[in-house]
Amino acid sequence: MLAGWEDIRAEVLRRIRAHDWRPGDTIPTEEALALEFGVARATVNRALRELAEEGVLERRRKAGTRVALHPVRRATLDIPLTRLEIEGRGQAYSYRLLSEEMASPPPAVAARLGLPQGAQMLHLVCLHLADDRPAVLEDRWLNPETLKVQPDFHLVSANEWLLANVPYTTGDISLSAANATADEARLLDLPPGSALFIIDRTTWDRDHPVTCVRLAHVPGFRMRTTV
Amino acid sequence: MLAGWEDIRAEVLRRIRAHDWRPGDTIPTEEALALEFGVARATVNRALRELAEEGVLERRRKAGTRVALHPVRRATLDIPLTRLEIEGRGQAYSYRLLSEEMASPPPAVAARLGLPQGAQMLHLVCLHLADDRPAVLEDRWLNPETLKVQPDFHLVSANEWLLANVPYTTGDISLSAANATADEARLLDLPPGSALFIIDRTTWDRDHPVTCVRLAHVPGFRMRTTV
């Protein structure tokens, strides 16, 4: 018996894998599938929606649902707090503020945050350590209007403070690789030129720019996901 | 008027951002929210489910739904076909098979695919080019049992062939950074030690191991997403 939407999803996927329905084919309507499987139309709808979100099906208004020609596989990536990521690996977390000053961000940072050039922002550089060894170098520009109170960033990382005080922001993330500069290598205790895994994040609270941060991870760091 | 689940989602998010509901707070039941908003309980359910999938809420069987204490932000990552990724940047795509041989994979590859050590697999090394410049070096081990016909991998990349013939597989993905070895640097026309963005994928078709591939991307490559 096909009961839940997960069963319908599995059966649709089975037919696609078996090439009963081939890439580009329009599949039967929700009504027809509901009738065939003996379930509510809402159940079929849920299953097809999930498969569309995964990139397996393409739903086209009026033209029906078809098997994706070039499925873009969609993976879900967890972006944890750096402390929780390190503790999750069973290592002891510590944190060190390296510098804190008001300054004008580079034009690219101002542009990404939609701020005028020359606007003053709080520039924080800090180090996240795992078992007392450098793990992540954080270079952050913070919109001072975000700070209703001025936290002591020697005691709490901006990462933690923002999450507690300006949570549920929206933002862009970009992942890349870069050779460590001489400064980065020194701060991270690595040979110059080491390959760093870079996470760049730009964050807004509704329409207000909050922060622009570059997290440089030492070799060995991995982000994992499944498709 | 609060009509659709997107409106309910936005209102719940607004209350969380306004700290009406704080991290760790249990929020009202679906019934109470449906009554307050004047919508069906299924509409509230859909909105809360989305927010739970995004990591904003935690749904606990019997204990109700609460605002996540440490929200793990979840981002969606598109994993496109290398050709489409290059063409999507407006560059001309080309492909070159560098080597093809039957061999025993390194123990780590055999282990990841769940194959006995010493099992013979097809080893393919190929280059994906953008505007005639090396963009991605692909090092792939392929389970020969996957190949019912033997394609000519000079003409079609394994990437494309698998998508057309063994689509909708499941798999693990790992993202990391690595310094180019001397060989990699030579094949990618880069200085030795250049920081490469590495995507490792291991793929199964239901329970059958299909392939294990390492895609090394030249500097400048970025994966982008939003939260």
List the keywords.
homodimer, alpha+beta, Arc Repressor Mutant, subunit A, Chorismate lyase, two-stranded antiparallel sheet, 7 helices, 28% helix, 36% strand
Report on this structure.
2 copies of one chain form a homodimer. The first copy, chain A, has 227 residues and is of the alpha+beta class. Chain A has 2 domains: 5-67, Winged helix-like DNA-binding domain superfamily/Winged helix DNA-binding domain (Arc Repressor Mutant, subunit A, Orthogonal Bundle); 82-217, Chorismate lyase-like (Chorismate lyase). Chain A contains 7 helices and 10 strands. Chain A has helices at residues 5-17, 30-37, 41-53, 82-88, 107-113, 158-165, 182-188, and strands at 57-60, 64-67, 73-79, 93-103, 121-130, 133-142, 170-179, 195-205, 208-217, 223-226. Chain A has a 6-stranded antiparallel β-sheet with strand order 4-5-6-9-8-7. The two termini of chain A are 27 Å apart. In chain A, 33% of the residues are buried. At the A-B interface, helix 1, strand 3, strand 7, strand 8 and strand 10 of A face helix 1, strand 3, strand 7, strand 8 and strand 10 of B. Strand 7 of chain A pairs antiparallel with strand 10 of chain B.
